[in-house]
Fold this protein.
Amino acid sequence: MSKKSILHILLAGLVCQAVSTSAVDVVRNGGFDEVLVGWEIPEALADLFPYDAALGAAALRPWNMAFDYRGPVLNQPLNVPLKAGDTVEVSVDLKASWQHDAGPRSVAVYLEFLDTAAARHRVRVINPDDNEIGTDWTTFTTTHTPAAGMSKLVGVSLAIETDDYFYADNVKVSTPTAGAPVPELEAVTPTVAYGQNLVIQGRHFGTGGRVLLSGSPNGLTIQSWSDTEIVVEVNDPCVGGPLTVEAAGVRSWQPRRVTITSPHYTLATKPAKVLAVLGQQLSIAVFANFENNFAPAEGITFTVTGYGSGVAQLSTNVIYGRGGTQLTFDTAGLSAGMHQITVEATGGGLQPRTTTFEIDLRQIGRVEMSYYLTSDPLPLEGAHFTRQTSAQVVVQIFDTAENEITGELPWLPMTSSNPSALDVYLDPAPWGGYSLLVQASGAAVLTLTAPNGSDWTASVSATIPAHPSIVSADFLLNPMSNAPDITNAFTFVASGAMSRANWGQISFGVTTVGGGWGSGNKSYTDMFILGEATKPGEYLFYGGGTMDGGSATAYRKLQVVNAPTTGLIRGLVNQLKSEMHGHGHGIEGTLEFYDATSGVKLFEREIWERDNRYTVPHLEPGVYKLRWMALDWEGNPLVEPQWYPNAATIDQAQAVTVPANTVVSNINFFVSPAPVSVSAPPEITEPPAFNPGTGEFSVQIQTESGAVYELLKSTSLLDHSWWPVAEAWGDGEPQTLKDTEATGTKGFYRVIRR
Ligand SMILES: [Ca+2]
C-alpha cells in the first residue's frame, strides 16, 4: 500500500474549530536546513547528534543511541501566548528506516504548555501506529485544542518511544499569533567555584526568571538580571551541568555546560525509571561521582526514602571514593501505580544531595502463551504433539490496561508438571527464551509464575510413536563439573538403525574428543569436554537421526556446576552511560586479579556480556584485589579503571577472599567516563552550523583571555569525526575563525574552547 500523500488527521475529535487562515508557523528550522539550529538535544543524549545528513532530517534513533532509550530526542522551546479558543495545528513528516519492524507506536510529537499557575504540561499530540509510516515520507497533521487554563505554548518535542528507527522532517506548529523570541544564550562562564559568580550573556532574558543547572535552581542566587545579561552566584549544592535560562516560564535552547571546580559530588541512578510488575525485585545502581579531589575521610552516607511498604536494601551505606552502591528493591507490598523512590547522600561538609528513580508498577492482567513449530503461532493450551521435537514458546504479557509489557520484564520462570515427557528449557540470555522439549508420550501442565505468585497454565500432551523415535538420550555425567580435564559422553539410542545421526548443542562451546556408532547403528555416542571456564548453568543438547519411516530428535538438558575445588565470583558492572560501549546494556573488558598481599598481577579474565551481570567461574581459591578495566573495540581504555570497591588505587582496594566451592556475590563496579581536567574542559561554544559548499566559511566568536579556540569541521555528523581547521588564542576580544580551504564538499563547523 502506498503511504505517500495520505493525510492523517489524529485527535481531531468532533469539535469543529475555525482555524485562522493567518496561522503562523512558530517552529524555527523545522525542516532542518540549518541542521539542528533551534533544537535542543536532551542532556541524556548529549553525546549523540540526532541528525541524518543524507536525508536532511532528524534521526530519532541515531546509530549510537542506547537500545533502551525512550523519550525526547529533540526539543524546541517556544514562546506563544494563547487565549481561550485558540487552536494549534501541528504537522510533521515521518519516515521509517528499512531497519524498522512494525511495532506499536514508536514516534510521538509533544507540545508543552504553561498554565495560568505557571505549571508545565506536556501533551502528546501526534503518535501514529508504526504501520501508518512507510519508508517513504508521510505527512501527519493534527489540530490540538489546548485544555482550559493554558496560557502559553512553551515547547515542541520529537520523541522515540520504542527501540525502532524513524526520521522526522518539516516540523510545523501553527498558532493564531506569531510567538515572541525565546531566551538565547551567547556566552556563559564555563567554569565556576562555589562562592563565585557566573555571567550569562545573551538575548531575550526579559526582566526576571530562573536559572537552572542540570535542571535545578538549587544553590543559584540571582545577583542581577537584564534582557541581555544575568549574574548568578553559585553555591553548594549546585552540581553544574547544562545551563538553562527560564524567563517567564520560557526556556532557552541549546544549553551551555558549566563545570563546578570546587570539590563536590553528584548523584544519579540507573535506571532512572523502570517498568516492573507487582512483587518484582529490582536492582538499581546509585552512582556517586566524586569531582575535583573530593575525598571526605568519613565518606558519604546513603539513605533511601519514599518507598512505603517496599523493601530497600543497599549493598553498602557508605562509600569513600568515586563509584556507587547497589540498591536492591523489593516491590512486594506496593500497589500498582507510579512510585518515586529517593536516595539521599550526606557527607563531606556539603549539603545533602538526592536522586530519584521512578517505578511504574503494573499488575499483569493477561498472559498469552503460544508455540511455533513452523512459521505460524498456535495456542499452547491444548497443544498436542506427535513427534519428538523442540518447539519455541512465546509468552506475551499484558497489564490490566491491555498494554503489552513483555519486553520490559525479565524472563518469568516456567515449569512442567511432567518433565520426563514434556520439559521446558529457558535460555536466560536477553535474546533467549523458552523451548518446549517434547520427549515422550504423556501430558503435562506448564506453569508460568509471576513475581507475586500469580500463575498461568497451559495443558499440553504428546503421543510419540514407538518408531521412529529416540528411546533414550543420556549423559555419562549430569551434572558435570566445569573442570577442563573431564570428558563427558552424550549417548542417544534410536528405535531403529539410523542412516544418519545429528547431534549438537545450543548456545554452548564444547569440544568433541571422540565418539561413534553403537551396535547396528541404533545408537550414537559423542564424547566431549567443556570450553575453558564454562559458566555454571543449564545447557541444551540434542541428538537424533534418520531411520526407516522418518526421523526423530531428542533434547536433553546438561547441568554444569562450578568445579568444587574452585571458587566463583559474580557481580555487576554498572555504567552510568549505557552507550559508553556502543551496545546497549552490555559490558566488555577485563577483570584483573592481583595478589592481595604483594600487589602482583596474577591473571585476568576477559568479560563480554550482553547485559551488565558477569560471572567468573573456576577460580583458584585465594585472596585477591580486583580491578575492572573496560576496553573499547580497539582495546583502548574507555572509562576510569576501578578497583573493588569504588577505589582509585590498589592501596584503597579491599581484599576479596575467594574460597573453594563457594559463590562470592555482589562484587560490583560503578564506572564513569574518565573525568576531564576541569582546568581545560573542551566546550562547544558554537553549535554545529552547516556550510552548503559555498567556498568559504567563517564565524565570529567572543574570546576570553588565555583560552584556546578551535574551529572544527566534519563532513558527516553521523560518525563524530571532527578535525581542526583553524585556531585562535583568546584575548578578550571578538575574533574570526575561518576555514580558508572550504572549497571542497559541503561540511559542518563548530567551535570549541579548549
Ligand atoms: Ca529537511
User: Anything to note?
Assistant: Residues 683-753 form one domain. Confidence is low (pLDDT under 50) at residues 1-20, 579-584, 675-682. The pocket of calcium ion is lined by residues 31-32, 56-57, 169 (CB under 6 Å). The radius of gyration is 30 Å.
